[in-house]
Amino acid sequence: MKDFLVDSVFFGAFISLAAYEAGLMLKRKFKLAILNPLLIGTILVMLALVLLDVEYKHYNEGARYISYLLTPATVCLAVPLYQQLTLLKKNLKAVAAGILAGVLTSLVSVLLLAKLFGLTHEQYVTLLPKSITTAIGLGVSQELGGIETITVAVIIVTGILGNVLADLLCKVFRIEEPVAKGLAIGTASHAIGTAKAMELGQVEGAMSSLAIAVAGLLTVVGASIFAEFM
């Protein structure tokens, strides 16, 4: 059985999609924020690999084909932004200030926590791109000498936390403006958070989509500067 799974080029893709679908079913049934489909899917895949005693490299031979869709899927987020172009032009200064503030907050927080916990330079630069989409974050981590696999894990965890906590945090801090919600979610938790923003509304989704692209570009520049601080 194990040999069949290892040799199958479809195993990784199948188990990934099946686990994610299971997460969607649980989310629809119980409607709890903690039951994020990506979080549930990740846990189920991990359990399956452990129980079936399948190494990650064999799983990834099939699962990597899903990863190829990550970049074009991110680019497609430009569609809702185009639909809200008038609103963007109207709030251009506020949008620019909000995204810049979010990116700086992310970089400064990583720097302070890295110093507080005594992280090495390699560990520090690994965490710098935590709030941007994987397609960009991997390149940043590689360029700065970080640990790419950990960067991917940190980006995913950041996105899941943003997706799960976004609505609650907006209510706690009484953030009601759709533009502000979208910018905050997209800047802090990239594409995974944007999925939640789109659930909240079209404006939130569009602004979050914009934040992903702009925050990614700003982080590429900002991370290179902040990497020299430690």
UniProtKB/TrEMBL annotation:
InterPro entries: CidB/LrgB. The lineage of its organism: Bacteria, Bacillati, Bacillota, Clostridia, Lachnospirales. This is TIGR00659 family protein. Keywords: Membrane, Transmembrane, Transmembrane helix. The chain crosses the membrane at residues 6-26, 33-52, 64-82, 94-114, 150-170, 206-227. It is found in: Membrane. It is a multi-pass membrane protein. It holds the Pfam family LrgB. GO terms for cellular component: membrane. The keyword Cytoplasm does not apply.
